[in-house]
Amino acid sequence: MKMKRLALAIIAIWIFMLLAPVAGLDFPRVIETIATKPQLVMRYLLIGLSNGAIFAIIALGYTMVYGIIQLINFAHGEVFMMSTFMALTVIAMMGTTNKSDPGQIAITIVVAMLVSILFGGLLNASIERVAYRRLRNAPRLAPLISAIGVSFILQNLGIIWAGQGYIQFLTPYFGTSGGFAQKAFPDLFPRVDIFKEVLGFSGVGVTFLTKELFVIAVAVGLMIALRLFISRTRLGKAMRATAENRDAAKIMGIDIDRIIALTFLIGGGLAGAAGLLNGLFVNTAWWQMGFQAGLRSFTAAVLGGIGNVTGAMLGGFLIGILTALSDGLFDPAWTRAWVFTVLVLVLIFRPTGLLGEATAQKA
Amino acid sequence: MGKYVKRGLLIGFIGGFLSLLFGGWTATILAVVGGLLTGFVSGTEGNEEQRDLKGLAVAGLIGGVIMALGGLVYDLWLSHIAGLKTHPDDVMYLSAILAIVLCPLMAVFMGRVQQMRDKKRLRIVNAIILLAFLFVFPFVEEATNSAWLASLIFAEIYVLLALGLNIVVGFAGLLDLGYAAFFAIGAYTTGLMSSPLHGIHVNFWILIWLSAVVAGLFGILLGTPTLRLRGDYLAIVTLGFGEIVPVAFTQLIKITLKEPITCYFVPLLSKLTGGQPVAQCLVLVDNFNLTAGVKGVSPLDRPVLPIISPVDDGLSLVLKLAIMAILVGLVAFLFMRSRRNGNRSKWALLGYGLALAAIIIAFVPFPKAGVVENPDPLTATVTAVMNTVQPGPLVSDNPIAWYFLMLALLGLSLVIIFRLRDSRLGRTWTAVREDELAANQMGVNLRNTKLLAFAMGATFSGFAGAFYGAYYNGIFPSVFEFSASVIILSAVVLGGIGNVSGVILGALIIMVMDNLVLKQLQAVLNGLQSNVLLPAAGNNLAAKQFIQANLDPVKYRFLLLGLVLVVTMAIRPEGLLPSREQREELHRAEETGETPEQLEAEPLPTPM
Amino acid sequence: MSFFVAQQVTKIFGGLVAVNKVDFVIEQGMIAGLIGPNGAGKTTFFNMITGVYPLSHGSFTFDGQDIGALKPHEITALGIARTFQNIRLFPAMSVIDNVLVGMHTRLKSNLIDTIFKTQRLQKEEEMAKGKALDLLDYVGLGRNRAPISARSLAYGDQRRLEIARALASEPKLLLLDEPTAGMNQSETADLTKFIRFVREDLKLTVLLIEHHMRVVMGISDRVSVLDHGEKIAEGTPTEVQNNQQVIEAYLGSGAGH
Prior knowledge:
The structure holds three protein chains of three kinds. Chain A is mostly helical. Helices cover 72% and strands 1% of the residues of chain A. Chain A has a single domain (56-349), classed as ABC transporter involved in vitamin B12 uptake, BtuC (Orthogonal Bundle). Among the domains of chain B are: 1-146, no CATH class; 154-248 and 396-493, no CATH class; 314-389, no CATH class. In chain B, 72% of the residues lie in helices and 2% in strands. In chain B, a hairpin with a 4-residue loop joins β1 (194-195) and β2 (200-201). In chain B, α8 runs antiparallel to α17. In chain B, 41% of the residues are buried. The interface between A and B is large, with 58 and 62 residues.
């Protein structure tokens, strides 16, 4: 009944166009902006790529964990958030600001990156050890509920951490506005437009800042490193095997507990890196940021195909672009509604995602 | 005996902690509650020996003493150094003495009651004791000025919410993380139709049903995309929905709906062809402020409560109650008659008709019988009774009226929930929860079953929302955020997923902890902080700052809730009160003395 | 018109052809056996009949009706019931509740009835409980066991409960997936007698997957053999037992007689 499908599709589109403006999608305005200010749209796309890079790394954590134990690690977003605070604390300890000399800034970023990755990894692995491991054979609801509990605990820890701004070396960074307030994360990168000042293209009209390049480069680098690890190393192969068939892996002598712990470690490490990158890029740290970023990254993972590493990367960039366009062209207050819509649509019409297959597989 | 000592210590420390925080009559009230509970719990253990009563007395004594001590510590010391309200001496000592006396008394009384032979009678007696307690409690609260009543009403609302979520999560096994959305929808439906915001003023009593239905419809709407999703994904989708709804309520303040064809395609077409637009843009809705956004909706209309309305004076009130009593009696008689005769239609119809009449009379204000200067003894007595028991008329500003109203609603809800659980639908939900595929193969329509679960859960939430809005006289979107969903979930998880009484207990514990204890603890710690700790820290600036930043228990709310979830799942996933199946298993073994394995199977029938 | 007809039924999973153009006819009142080595596609075939797997090609006709496009619960309502290879009871539910769930399609009370606890509901529940208890007696579990939880039953009793649950839907066609798996000799003999009894007593038609050769050869009116998704033989038990292809399929080609 092709006609019936066509008619339904037309009605669906009509309803969409009727209701979308309520959620910020003002069609004439958007079309006009795209037509008259293409550089602005390009700028949004660039921002979207940077955001997307961060979402992609966080999404990797979700997808790896889901691929191996079929659990949505609700607390993953909070690991990201805590890592941002950790990074901020490291920067505070080293006393680096925007005005410091480039050498110090470079060292600070390297140190912060290492610490954040380590912190995120250990935190995530500890969560697995404490809250999830014993529930591995429990009915489905139990680890999910435990994950939500952990998420809440970590959010509160974030609030407490952010409230310690009275400690002397933290005060310039955390301020004394209390744990619930947003904190300013220093913008350590020189505000240099790569197109104009580095490459000498003055007529581009689109800004591309150094920090954005940094975020994308580091993220892509980490993703490549992960791909290599999974496909080339012994441990990576063990992870793939465990994800595909746990019992077979056990029989082959793979220590399942260790592999799962390793998965959480790597996923958490990536979230840790994302925490620093996000701080440097968005220049805020807030106890609620993990929740939002988590939802978006998870949507990215689902969009790409849960359990699929390449899919997570692709999904991350797509969602990043979506959020940037929504924030810029539609209405920031409704961005989460758009992301949620994507999630629901994917789950209804293509639950295996863009790159996923019927059987959960690693890339 | 050791078991009883442990019990006594347990209720003692819990009650004692609360007495320590609140002082005054708290010790006595908690002693009564603790005693009754201890006695009741002993009854569920099925041990008939006489020795139990002595043990209960000991447990009660230990508990009562600890609670008394807690209260005394508060009033003699803590309240002074923390700068909080101290109770007068006679209250303080009387409360302590009563606690020490009443706790064992109540425990033994309740324990003795539980030893009744006839189990059916016992359940009725227990129910009566519970109802008596619930009925008397608010009056005692008012009399002792404990200011707990407002929190209790809030707790009742949360109990209803927890019961509703229990249908979705507990009965049907669908993890709904966005439950607060239906709460919001119910509250806003009521608010938007009984406030000056849109100038619509629908009667509250119609509105609560409407809110419930609207919420139920949204339940179906949310449920539909989740039907084919497995647990985790379903949870995330419901979480997203629960997140979007408060955002929507905050943002729906400038809604514009333009018909797409005339407003977009026609102008586009005409621009491309260079001609004039063929049709005028059809604007259906222009810049409409639906929800007042962050400002919230307030004030709402105050409902008029049934039976008692401002116009009724003593005599007409008595008359009204009498007529209603007669009607209710007639209705009950007719129903019993119809049941016995089997010919239900005539009598039942008549019964329903009379019930309807009774309801209408309840809501109709009787005309005043005229001001009576020297009232007759009857009116005078009634008025006097009403005034002592009830300081003021039972209008909607009076929390006691709300308390009972909410209690009635909870009672009605419980009846419906039990009926749902023990019916074909309840079995279907359990089957779907345990093995969806097998249930489907047995003929269960998965889609309808799941949607019904969502719809029923959402309906109760809608009721709760309507009540919440009307009671608080204002609705603000911040109340319905994701954390609200998690709090309700914690209540269900803590109490025992699927177990109705467990869920009620869980909701009460979480609410008491969140609303009462945390706030009072904050007050106490604040007082201690200003009067004791900061001065003690002297010149140690670091210590001072540390104390000031971290000694606020309200800041640890999420931590506590999260811990409740994680710890419950880790050490007692079935919750505080195990579910019916587990309990029935244990009971059956007790009653017959057999284990399931001992029962032999009979031989299969064979053809002759 | 035949009672149950499978025509050119095919199921393809990705690249794997699990069931390949199988034709299959069952007459009313027949006990039809379905055998074949492991992985031959027997349970997949069952799952297609009951609607769990959609057909890739072919059709099923039951009692004159094409059931290929129906959902599982609709198929049960039409009168096809099944048991599972690995017992799939509702473990935490009581024995009688398991049977009552099986009765789901034959009960009519709806949401309104439930909320208002109408006479209709009460009468129906009473009748249903009575029927369920009768069924428990019928399969030899005994009505005393009604309130205990299903998971606490012994293995053999769980199988009986599964059958009781399947019978509760008053089926015309009963699909049994390896009902005697894990049973000892006397239990197997009991169950075999019971299947014959039920066919007579309830006028059922039975389709039976089995690995116990003695069972399936003993009670089947006709036996069909699947191997690698294809039907390689069909006939009376004796005919099939002596079929060379069948022997090879089980033992590998080159085996003796």
